[in-house]
Amino acid sequence: MHRVGVMVALVLLLTIPPSIAVAQEDRQGRGWAVDATVGTLGIGADLSRSIVPRVLNIRAGASFFSFTNDDFIDNDIHYEAELKLGAIPIAVDVFPFKNWFRLGGGVAINFSEIDGTALPQNGFIEIGNGVYPSSVVGQLNAKFEVNRVSPYFGMGFNNPIKGSGRLGFFVDLGFLYHGTPSASLTSSNSALLPILQQDINRQIQIINDEIKGYKILPVVQLGISYRF
Questions:
Q1: Per-residue pLDDT tens digits for 188-203
Q2: What is the CATH number of domain 29-227?
Q3: For the chain, what are the domain ranges?
């Protein structure tokens, strides 16, 4: 994840002209803008550059956030779960009417996932068709993942690189298509009973059948932009 972020940062730095430190306000809508964002992709920032003034911008950034639930329940199994949101979007924004309305599309390197550890209830864990002592199961870890590269489509309200003024507020609405999610369950016990392993495999299949329809992540981002 850190390597990808460094690569994106290097590309952006290499494309910044030396004169940026003394850039003057351009009434034609040329230049750069930075956004501070918060929403379903997490908390982060974007950097935009005008390619065709008032018509076409390119944008790249990064957003991250995590949240821990101490008692997440799925199929009668209690988990201590951590939701991790993270994305590095690279998008093109088109302004068809040369005003504040924009259409965007691109890809996002998607780091969103859920990690969980099963919590025994009275010393037992219900898995598949059986109930097992936690000492037999060991530590049961769950992970929910999506495709790392996800197409992005959306629309927004505000051109951060506008012809007048430096500050702006915006809303982005859209979605990431992250494909079919996948779940896994692994035990810290390397010598599981065959019947327990069968129930773990059955539980994995049940979870995957339940989440296979969740292929889209809605994107709602709010923020403030500054043109320089």
A1: 987 888 999 999 999 9
A2: 2.40.160.170
A3: 29-227
How far apart CA 220 and CA 228 sit, in angstroms, is 25
Separation of alpha carbons 99 and 164, rounded Å: 12
DSSP the chain: -HHHHHHHHHHHHHHS-GGGGG----TTS-SEEEEEEEETTEEEEEEEEEEETTTEEEEEEEEEEEEEEEEEEETTEEEEEEEEEEEEEEEEEE-TTSSSEEEEEEEEEE--EEEEEE--BTTEEEETTEEEEHHHH--EEEEEE--SEEEEEEEEE--SS-SS-SEEEEEEEEEEE--S-EEEEEES-SS--HHHHHHHHHHHHHHHHHHTT--EEEEEEEEEEEE-
Q: How many residues does the chain have?
A: 228
Global pTM reads 0.76
Asked whether the beta carbons of 64 and 19 are under 8 A apart, the reply is no
Phi-psi category of 124—alpha, beta or left, where left has phi over 0 and alpha has psi -120 to 50? beta
Instruction: Look up residue 25 and give its amino acid.
Output: E
At residue 228, the pLDDT reads 86
